[in-house]
Amino acid sequence: MARNDLLPRLIGGLFAGCALLAAGSASAADKVAYQLDWLPGGDKAPIYVCVDKGFCADAGLDVSIVPGRGSSEAITKIATGASDIGSADIGALMAARVNESVPVIAVMSIFNKGPHAFYTLEGSGVETITDVKGKTVATSPFTSSNVFLPLVLKDVGLTEDDITLTKADPGALGPMLMTGASDVIIAWMTDVSRYTGQAKNAGKTIKVFPWSAAGLELYSASLIANEGFLKDRPDVARRFIAAFRKSVEFCIANPQEAAESVSHIVPELTAENVLGSLKDTLVLVDNDVTEKDGLGVFEPKRLAATWERVSAAQQLDKDVLDPETVVDRAFVPGATQ
User: Fold this and answer.
1) Would you kindly state where each structural domain of the chain is located, as residue ranges?
2) pTM of this prediction?
3) CA-CA distance, 273 to 44, in Å (whole number)?
4) Domain 116-214 has what CATH class?
């Protein structure tokens, strides 16, 4: 073969080799399966920001988002390795560690305040949480708020016998409140905008009573991970958690753009609706606790208080679990020991 014939082939081979290397680099991103504990929405914005804004890609990660139907399901999927990391209520994780010894651990706080609240209307006669005495109260059958209801009532000197409690489909709670079918409903602080809008359409005004204001101070939604994932792929875990934390900071600083990121990935959700839910959610993420302890941190005393509340609510022996064994602070900068 003539040298003149060989040169183009060598050059062609070189370019082909470079193309294969480039393709290999492009496909070298580490895959991570992120497990939601519920459906997409404003309260789940950080993971959508992480993907849409490229924070995950910049960290060399190819992240898939898996929908969920509650903390228990999320914990199970992460425990079995079906997903690597995700969000769930740390109280549910504590109970699962006691009852099932699941290989799942919390690595970052997302909500450092509980989301539980009473909603009522102006003119209902409810001016403080104590005023729910003698009222009809509606709740969803499956909300984790029901677990803590006896505790928050006890904190204000009441029992469940002091209210008339009914359970209804979550979608029916708002209409029940607006039509007077129930004096009070139990819902999360992440839904303030939604219920405020429903009340406005009905010519009424919402009043919200967070249970945290009555003394129910605890951690709630948290970033949790499979222990095998943390042990076998610590660098991947560290990069993901750093990118997720950056995404939380982005949500705090740029809620409108964060809402648009959710809408980009989940077009069934409008940015306007996502924004309202996200703003409601951020009060549980960025607040006086965050200012004192830092973003994403599990402060030991608050963590212990969380387990004390969870064990009491679920009638578990407080001494069977050291809450410190439920968290790994190694992945969040500035975490308190």
Assistant:
1) 30-113+218-331, 116-214
2) 0.87
3) 13
4) alpha beta
